[in-house]
């Protein structure tokens, strides 16, 4: 599939990387000559140097034959214009990054309709939503929801002395009668799609699929302290922080934001509803953090623009025994080091956006069959959790799951039927209209039929 | 330096060459040359085995390739495959001396077409076929070939492609390196087959048409007759003239024509400068040699063929231009440097580099007269990066230096400046013939083994545009004191 990506910044190059790995024909556009040169050395893409909103550049990139056009330059307006031109010049679908909060209200629908933009992405908003879910469920290091919020995929790290240590999955199900499924385990860099005989160990990172209320039940039974964060401290008044603070304040959480820049502090204090405490000061100073109540915070979220600063300050918060510490880290190699430091809750806007694009591209490739509704890459990208819409032409329809011949390293982790979530057993079968969650490692799926051996 | 990756890729090429050596083996079989056939098969088996062992036992820790690995791979592969390619000549006894066989093979792969055979017609058909087949393989590049057919060598094969494809800037036609390589080879094969058909119509045997098409496609110039193309009909000479010119054009143009972007295809300045130079040189030579041939048709054919052959660095000939007047020989001497368009199979400096050099000179003069003026160099109304400009002028200096050193090293030969200098220039530019004893009717047979080795190296330098070979022989590349 031919895809054009305009803008090769942090988000743009991460999109390039994932799309090339997916096997697409990718053309990259950027205004900066040296950046374009670098990109052509690293990724197997064609490069065009020029402005994304310049028709000639777009024509040179072959926009008339493109199935998908993605505009992720750092200017919202350029992205809109580029998408508008691209659509007019023949691109089938367009995606624009639009992140200014002013555009992300009622304007958005009007704009999407009139500019004929298929989809808008707002990395900051997506990141804030993910942060919000994590703060609601602090025991997890990562929470992904599937459509309709009926099913969740919760990632947890088994700490030393966890009641799950040394227990096999079969016994686990017998012991706790909750409806859940351990659907992926990462241990020492290896990833497993476990079966019933699999024995858990402390230090494992496990992925659990369950309905949201079942997750709560399970955690309670396991005795994992599970208190929703009520006092949250945020470092850095970024756009993500703005969206997150809005959501938290709405749900009655006390939010403290620390920011170095006086101008941004003032802006936040004007735009955020009451209830947010905005502190002007350098958050890298430990004394300041302590004085502002780090010791009594339920959660600390580090959202400055610098990965390194986020890691160091988060590490300090971890040492202060803050129950939940989340850091924003965009560079992959740094998040690996952060995990070594014991910071396991990490969010990366870059990764969130690439997941969204991979899903979009796969759904486009297979717009007729049982296509992909949502897609998340878990455990450092080694496992994919996909949700498919089941059409009546799916080959395994109405066959009990125990009789379906599935490919290896693959698991049907959940079925949503209507508003009800189902953790499937061997007797259940897939019906048209269902949404099916499949967990897979080492394979790419485009259609639900791809799961059959 | 990811040495393992370099040798692993070489393993693939060795195995591929083993496979390709079966083609001349079949030709030998058809013509009943059994000794030649067995030597091809033996070398094929040896190369395939060596390649297989390299691929089996060298397991790189990672498949990362950077610019350094790209250069080293290209140099190692070209030296290695030339050595393998020379073996059938030696084993079959048709060119018993290894240095001679290596010279002939390198001359083939680098599409030079310089030969040291005193009597080419005595060579077996299988050997003649292999000699010309090396032109065809070397023209577009074997590494480009392996990229077109093999999967996932590495994510960054662009570095290899850049090191193997000649020209100041190497771009892609389509997003993926693999697809670009595939398109280039398909165009290459299509044009070659087209020429074969035209030659068959002209009355050539299938063997002759294949051999001459390979020689034209790679802009190589190995013939199978003592008088090269001279003995064939005027129709065949015209066909070869046209195809030599076609293979000297940037292959991007054919792709643009295929996808029906005609305006983009024909708007490039380089193409028209190429034709302009060709037309001007043909006109001058035609006017100059008219008294010798005295018929307009004959004169025009002589001038058109010789100019096309030299400007595209093919090196076919239909008459001995050594006996032409001084002016014509002077024009031919200058043309030795030019080469075809960038992105073609031709050798030499390339028209686009020459255009950039002239624009640089013009800018320099403007700067001298108006020291405060700021101006950028544009090609096809797009500014050229300063980095590209300085790399072009550096390349030019290195290129002149290479010719100079090659010339000095073969100066021990008693053949006079005219022969020695033109031999050095001709080998570095991958043309083939020169003046004096290395003229169209002569050859490199009388040079000493030392000079042959020097010229062999010079041909490789010229084909790979100097840098890869120098990087590969520099000890610092291989001794990794640094990370």
Model description:
The complex is a heterodimer of chains A (453) and B (483). With 453 residues, chain A is of the alpha/beta class. Helices cover 33% and strands 25% of the residues of chain A. Chain A folds into four domains: 2-121, 3-Layer(aba) Sandwich (Rossmann fold), CATH 3.40.50; 137-222, Alpha-Beta Plaits (2-Layer Sandwich), CATH 3.30.70.1450; 231-322, 3-Layer(aba) Sandwich (Rossmann fold), CATH 3.40.50; 351-451, Alpha-Beta Plaits (2-Layer Sandwich). Chain A has helices at 10-21, 33-42, 55-60, 76-88, 107-115, 123-136, 169-175, 212-222, 239-250, 262-271, 286-291, 307-319, 332-340, 349-365; strands spanning 2-6, 25-30, 46-49, 68-71, 93-97, 119-121, 142-145, 152-157, 180-187, 190-192, 205-210, 231-235, 254-259, 276-280, 299-302, 324-328, 346-347, 372-378, 383-389, 410-417, 420-422, 435-441. In chain A, the strands form four sheets. Chain A has a six-stranded parallel beta sheet with strand order 3-2-1-4-5-6, sandwiched between helices. In chain A, strands 14-13-12-15-16-17 form a six-stranded parallel beta sheet, sandwiched between helices. In chain A, strands 7-8-11-9-10 form a five-stranded antiparallel beta sheet. In chain A, a hairpin with a 4-residue loop joins strand 18 and strand 19 (383-389). Chain A is globular, with a radius of gyration of 23 Å. The two termini of chain A are 25 Å apart. Chain B has 483 residues and is mainly alpha-helical. Chain B has helices spanning 3-20, 22-30, 34-57, 67-92, 98-109, 125-140, 142-149, 158-164, 177-201, 206-217, 234-247, 251-258, 262-267, 269-293, 296-311, 326-335, 351-369, 386-409, 416-428, 449-463, 467-473, 475-478, and strands at 378-379, 382-383. In chain B, a hairpin with a 2-residue loop joins strand 1 and strand 2 (382-383). In chain B, helix 1 (3-20) packs antiparallel against helix 3. The chains are: A alpha/beta (453), B mainly alpha (483). Chains A and B meet through strand 2 and helix 2 of A and helix 9 of B.
């Amino acid at each position: 599939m031919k895809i054009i990506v305009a803008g090769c910044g942090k988000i743009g190059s991460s999109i390039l990387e994932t799309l090339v790995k997916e096997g697409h024909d990718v053309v990259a556009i950027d205004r900066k000559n040296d950046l374009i040169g670098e990109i052509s050395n690293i990724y197997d893409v064609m490069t065009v140097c020029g402005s994304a909103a310049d028709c000639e550049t777009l024509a040179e990139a072959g926009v008339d034959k493109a199935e998908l056009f993605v505009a992720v330059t750092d200017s919202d307006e350029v992205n809109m214009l580029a998408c508008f031109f691209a659509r007019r010049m023949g691109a089938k679908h367009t995606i624009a990054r639009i992140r200014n909060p002013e555009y992300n209200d009622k304007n958005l629908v009007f704009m999407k309709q009139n500019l004929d933009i298929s989809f808008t992405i707002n990395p900051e908003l997506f990141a804030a939503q993910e942060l919000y879910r994590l703060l609601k469920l602090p025991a997890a290091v990562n929470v992904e929801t599937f459509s309709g919020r009926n099913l969740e995929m919760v990632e947890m790290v088994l700490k030393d002395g966890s009641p799950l240590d040394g227990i096999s999955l079969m016994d686990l199900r017998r012991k706790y009668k909750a409806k859940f499924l351990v659907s992926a385990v990462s241990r020492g860099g290896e990833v497993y799609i476990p079966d019933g005989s699999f024995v858990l160990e402390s230090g494992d990172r496990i992925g659990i699929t369950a309905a949201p209320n079942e997750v709560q039940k399970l955690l309670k039974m396991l005795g994992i302290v599970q208190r929703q964060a009520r006092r949250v401290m945020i470092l850095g008044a970024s756009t993500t922080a703005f969206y997150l603070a809005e959501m938290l304040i709405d749900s009655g959480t006390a939010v403290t934001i620390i920011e170095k820049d006086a101008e941004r502090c003032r802006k936040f204090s004007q735009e955020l509803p009451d209830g947010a405490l905005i502190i002007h000061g350098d958050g890298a100073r430990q004394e300041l953090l302590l004085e502002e109540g780090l010791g009594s915070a339920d959660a600390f979220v580090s959202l400055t623009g610098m990965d390194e600063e986020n890691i160091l300050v988060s590490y300090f918060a971890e040492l202060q025994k803050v129950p939940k510490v989340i850091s924003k880290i965009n560079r992959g190699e740094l998040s690996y080091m952060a995990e070594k430091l014991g910071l396991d809750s990490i969010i990366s806007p870059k990764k969130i956006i690439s997941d969204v694009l991979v899903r979009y591209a796969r759904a486009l490739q297979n717009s007729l069959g049982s296509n992909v509704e949502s897609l998340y890459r878990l455990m450092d990208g080694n496992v994919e959790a996909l949700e498919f819409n089941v059409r009546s032409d799916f080959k395994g329809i109405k066959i009990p799951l125990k009789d379906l011949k599935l490919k290896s390293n693959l698991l049907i982790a959940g079925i949503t039927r209507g508003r009800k979530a189902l953790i499937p057993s061997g007797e259940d079968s897939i019906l048209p209209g269902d949404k099916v969650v499949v967990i897979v490692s080492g394979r790419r799926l485009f259609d639900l039929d791809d799961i059959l051996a | 330096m990811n040495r393992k990756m370099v040798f692993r890729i070489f393993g693939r090429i060795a195995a591929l060459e083993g496979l390709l050596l079966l083609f001349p083996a079949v030709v030998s079989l058809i013509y009943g040359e059994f000794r030649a056939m067995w030597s091809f098969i033996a070398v094929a088996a040896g190369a395939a085995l060596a390649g297989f062992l390299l691929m089996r036992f060298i397991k790189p820790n990672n498949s990362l390739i950077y610019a350094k690995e790209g250069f080293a791979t290209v140099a190692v592969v070209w030296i290695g495959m030339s050595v393998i390619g020379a073996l059938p000549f030696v084993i079959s006894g048709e060119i018993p001396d290894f240095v001679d066989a290596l010279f002939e093979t390198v001359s083939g792969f680098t599409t030079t077409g310089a030969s040291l055979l005193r009597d080419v017609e005595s060579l077996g058909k299988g050997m003649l076929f292999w000699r010309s087949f090396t032109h065809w393989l070397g023209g577009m590049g074997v590494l480009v070939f392996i990229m077109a057919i093999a999967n996932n060598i590495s994510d960054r094969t662009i570095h290899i492609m850049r090191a193997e494809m000649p020209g100041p800037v190497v771009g892609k036609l389509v997003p993926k390196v693999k697809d670009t390589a595939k398109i280039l080879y398909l165009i290459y094969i299509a044009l070659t087959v087209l020429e074969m058909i035209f030659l068959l119509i002209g009355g050539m045997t299938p063997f002759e048409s294949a051999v001459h098409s390979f020689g034209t496609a790679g802009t190589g110039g190995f013939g199978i007759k003592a008088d090269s193309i001279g003995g064939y009909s005027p129709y065949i000479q015209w066909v070869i003239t046209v195809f030599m010119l076609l293979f000297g054009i940037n292959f991007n143009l054919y792709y643009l024509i295929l996808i029906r972007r005609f305006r983009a295809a024909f708007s490039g300045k380089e193409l028209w400068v190429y034709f302009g130079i060709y037309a001007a040189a043909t006109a001058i030579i035609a006017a100059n040699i008219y008294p010798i041939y005295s018929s307009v048709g004959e004169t025009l054919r002589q001038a058109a063929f010789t100019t096309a052959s030299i400007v595209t660095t093919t090196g076919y000939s239909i008459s001995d231009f050594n006996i032409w007047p001084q002016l014509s020989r002077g024009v031919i001497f200058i043309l030795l440097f030019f080469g075809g368009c960038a992105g073609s199979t031709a050798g030499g400096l390339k028209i686009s580099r020459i255009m950039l050099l002239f624009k640089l000179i013009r800018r320099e003069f403007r700067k001298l007269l108006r020291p405060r003026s700021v101006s950028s160099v544009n090609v096809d109304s797009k500014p050229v990066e300063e980095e590209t400009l300085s790399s072009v002028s550096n390349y030019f200096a290195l290129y002149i230096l290479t010719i100079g050193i090659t010339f000095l090293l073969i100066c021990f030969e008693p053949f006079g400046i005219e022969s020695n200098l033109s031999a050095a220039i001709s080998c570095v530019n991958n043309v083939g013939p020169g003046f004096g004893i290395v003229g169209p009717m002569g050859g490199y047979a009388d040079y000493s083994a030392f000079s042959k080795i020097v010229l062999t190296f010079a041909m490789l330098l010229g084909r790979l545009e100097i840098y890869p070979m120098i990087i590969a022989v520099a000890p610092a590349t291989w001794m990794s004191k640094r990370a």
